Amino acid sequence: MDEYDIVVIGGGSGSQVATAAADRGLEAAVIERGPLGGACITRGCVPSKALIHRADLADAVRRAGEFGIAADLQDVAYGEITDAIHDTVYEKAARQERALEESDSVALFRGEGRFVDEWTIAVKPTDDSGDTREVRGDAIVLAVGSRPMVPPIDGLEDVDFLTSDDALFLDEQPDELAIVGGGYIGAELGYFFGALGTDVSMIGRSERLIPGEDDDASAVVTDSLADYCDLYTGYEAAEVAQGDGGGSVTITAEPSDDDGEPVEIEADELLLATGRRPNTDTLALEETSVETDDKGYVETDARLETAAEGIWALGDIVGEQPFKHAADYEAEVVMANVLNDAGREVDYGAMPHAIFTEPQVASVGRTEGELEDEGREYESTTVPFDAAPLGLILGADDGFVKVLAAPDGEILGCHVVGPQASTLIQEVVVAMDSGDGTVDDVADPVHVHPALSEAIYTAFDDLSSKEFSSAPDWRDVAPSGRSSEAE
Ligand SMILES: Cc1cc2nc3c(=O)[nH]c(=O)nc-3n(C[C@H](O)[C@H](O)[C@H](O)COP(=O)(O)OP(=O)(O)OC[C@H]3O[C@@H](n4cnc5c(N)ncnc54)[C@H](O)[C@@H]3O)c2cc1C
Fold it and tell me: Which residue intervals define the domain Pyridine nucleotide-disulphide oxidoreductase dimerisation in the entry (predicted)?
């Protein structure tokens, strides 16, 4: 039996807790069955954004004519692109593995961990080499992440399909691709494949793609993705069948509200992007007093301690915010609580997220729909990106910044749609997380001219209590016809 001060199961964000413990002179262990770094590095954030960067380049070439530059998209070296991305992200995972192996105070166990009792985990080597080893920890951190959920669609057992785990590294670009699922992973991949020229059909249960976003944001993305994909929003995949000779797949999709006729969609490849499920079923948690909800997410208190004292959880298995930055934030909370007994509680009030479609979406705080459902009093303004001169220059005419604030100026939510939205949201996050979190915290500081952050500035300035304003407003020359809507 190997005994440690702290044992982390899952080498994604959780491994940082082990490293921090080792820096304190504690004996720590990480149990990981796959590549180090977790989903983000080899199956999620990084490779998907590397692909989307190629889609953005292809899109820029396609749009160049709008700006008086003649350019044609001549060829996409698809296999070379995916090979290059694969090599980069697996090199990063290998470096992380080497760093742990070379560390004197973090032990790396390669294999799948399962509890045999509350404090003991059996690690079965992934490649069946060697014997199962038992590891015991004084504190244990569960950080085993999530995997694609495969929905119960008739005929799926007889059909070849992809999930995001395999769709990122295809050797060849599919000519036709049907994507089931209109959430953020489906939308990002729909944009990627569509922008590179694949004939994409997307089937989404809701009337809009990315339905969890503010309605205005999801409406813009749905309209925009209709330029890259054939959209079947408001449909559910009911049945799938392999085509003759196994070369294609036919999907029968039925209207979600049972009102209307089914449609049949044919494609070379089928990609399921129908959500993710926590990997907690791999852990034999029934051997412990850790509790999960009916979907398998781990129940924790606000300090991220599970029902078993001394066993902590973080990341996708907590089910609060399924994003890498959220998992890293939760890892910091667990470090503070396990290593310093800090009693720190999670606060997701200023937790942002972004979706890397065209246009990008970034969001923090409440959506307008949520505020309405809560019956909360709020003020709102929506300012188009082309109110800022750089927004106009870039032709970001479907972009906007929407600010939701309480009558006393407290920022309740902000939704940004447009180029670099994922970066632009950050000043709003800083304002919400520190200081008073009011619209004045964003509207008061000087913003660089003529940067896109002026779109944020003008929107917050609209709701601010400032007596004098110098925020730019180019709506009067915006070619998009949005000016009258926004004013
Ligand atoms: C296609 C895609 C795109 C994404 N894009 C973004 C993005 O742009 N931005 C963003 O913030 N998030 C993104 N995400 C989400 C992000 O990847 C996850 O939220 C994040 O990786 C969660 O971290 P984690 O540590 O909880 O889990 P993971 O990173 O999944 O790490 C868990 C680890 O545990 C291991 N494991 C599981 N069970 C066991 C076991 N029993 N024993 C040993 N090891 C085990 C797994 O192999 C895995 O390595 C994306 C996800 C996908 C799929």
Answer: 351-459
